[in-house]
Write a structure and sequence with these properties.
237 residues
Length: 237
């Protein structure tokens, strides 16, 4: 398999890890993700990963239930660490060398993140899992992913979701919704399309970081995106 990119930042949603369980981590879904990621690494691609924590805890949901926002977001950061450790274990279980980094110092659970150490791991053939968001409250894991993509000099940010791209409207609610093959960040703003939060979108736009939004839950899609096939929606400046 040839690949279009040398270094990628793959953003995975925590909700997708639930599979059909409705909560927590589905072992079959986790194994499918690990196999797809290893396939890229086996073909020489440098893969960094950021995972959300919504399958375990969401800071905003916690705030709505009475937690203060800072505490809720800190709990959400810990949820992303749990998911990251699970993915690290799944990858190492199939022979893929992997390092988990955390945005706040949690050694020996993971290495304390720095862009330099993450890049070194990637250049040495390891998958780098970047946990804990930005390490600060009030920022989503989408923003964390955008920041890490820029910091490590990724060629592209791939946002794996449960839908197969960006549409003019919610395709589950509007049967006339039309999918975009490509779209600019400016049009995302003007149309009010919330593919990720505004901070993450602005960060990618300002740093010329292309984003591909695609369906990660269909096995084989990740390899197709990496190969430059027209899967999902490409967002560019």
């Amino acid at each position: 398999m040839s690949t279009k990119y040398n270094r990628i930042l793959l953003k995975l949603s925590g909700e997708s890890l639930m599979g059909k369980q409705g909560y927590g981590i589905d072992s079959q879904r986790l194994a499918e993700y690990a196999e797809q990621i290893k396939q890229l690494a086996d073909n020489g691609m440098q893969v960094a990963i950021v995972i959300g924590g919504g399958n375990i805890f969401r800071g905003l949901a916690g705030a709505a239930k009475g937690y203060d926002r800072v505490t809720g977001d800190q709990m959400g950061m810990l949820a992303t660490v749990i998911n990251s450790l699970a993915l690290r274990s799944a990858l190492e279980g199939i022979g893929q060398r992997t390092t988990a980094f955390t945005a706040v110092n949690m050694y020996p659970i993971g290495e304390y993140y720095s862009a330099r150490k993450a890049i070194s791991a990637l250049e040495n053939g390891r998958v780098a899992i970047l946990a804990g968001g930005t390490g600060n409250p009030f920022f989503t894991t989408d923003t964390g992913a955008a920041l890490r993509a820029v910091e490590i000099g990724a060629d592209v940010m791939m946002k794996g979701t449960r839908v197969d791209g960006i549409y003019t409207a919610d395709p589950e609610k509007d049967p006339d919704a039309v999918k975009f093959g490509t779209i600019t960040f400016a049009e995302v703003y003007s149309r009010g399309l919330r593919i990720m939060d505004l901070t993450a979108t602005a960060l990618c736009q300002e740093n010329d970081m292309p984003v591909v939004v695609f369906d990660m839950d269909t096995p084989g899609n990740l390899a197709k995106v990496a190969n430059g096939e027209k899967v999902g929606t490409l967002v560019t400046v």
